[in-house]
Amino acid sequence: MALVDVCIHQNLQSDIIIIPAIGHYIVNSGGKRFRPLLCLLTARLFGYHGERHIPLSVVVEFIHTASLLHDDVVDSSDQRRGSPSANGVWGNQASVLVGDYLFSRSFQMLVSDGDMAMLSLMSNVTNALAEGEVLQLSRTFHLEMTEAECLEVIERKTAVLFKAASEVGAHAAGQSPETVAIMAEYGMCLGVAFQLMDDALDYMAEAEDAGKPVGHDLEEGKITLPLIHAMQGDAELAVRVEEISERGCYQEGDRAWVRQRVAAQHGCDFTMNRAKDYAARAKSLLPNDVDMDVRKLLADLADFSAHRPY
Length: 310
Ligand code: FPP
Ligand code: MG
Fold this sequence. Notes:
The protein has 15 helices and two strands. The chain is mostly helical. It has a single domain, classed as Farnesyl Diphosphate Synthase, CATH 1.10.600. It is globular and about 60 Å long. The structure holds farnesyl diphosphate (FPP) and magnesium ion (MG). Farnesyl diphosphate binds next to helix 4, helix 6, helix 7 and helix 8.
């Protein structure tokens, strides 16, 4: 992970000083480096001791960082990881453009790696990620959203990058297509668990702990699983959500009222239980004829994704 940090900083260098300024601001802002860790551990699971997975894990982190820079503009969010978001400090234009820089730098790094299979994998993943965000946008205030539709958005906007991280690690370690596919599925399940927790935390956490605004998803028109589940058992809540949707914003007291009704219907418990199911499935996919210490760490990462407090 120390080598990952060195590689990140090397690849943020540019003579256009706002690029390293924003780049360093966001990569040093206390992110968990979850995706690079997943990539390195997956490679190690199969005994890989080369160095190729270091820049490849940075590619995954840069695509993630670029997507956050864009996401905070799209969501009009002014807080990320407990600090003002990059768009809150430098404005929307600079955030979008530096996101583009990180995104294109990722592809330069993939070309340097020189493996067409890796380039194909990462270009498909990035395309799926962008599709996932557009799909989510097209389902803004889609009040009839089903659990299956909600999971489709989650897989496409979030889980694909976790899938890519473990897929890249297994591929770099020279594993067979079958094993790479199993590790891809592990990453996908872990990623779904991670986003389901994110969706539960939006209705549960305090903003200071989450490091970003909470109770924000509904106001943005994101109909997530805690709310879907709660609306099924609470007709009054469904009516209030429809009113919020027609108005397009909260009125005084809406946020706290909705949060309380979601809690009364156990919307977050339901969502967290789904997250735990996905984490259990991820763990069950881990192969046995591998480095058992690393396997344990990957199992712990799956558990963390479904239990994390932030
Ligand atoms: C966070 O979701 C955002 C994502 C998981 C993906 C964002 C992707 C894009 C904006 C498009 C792709 C961009 C590039 C450069 C390829 P969230 O808003 O639910 O979570 P949050 O609460 O952390 O903001
Ligand atoms: Mg967002």
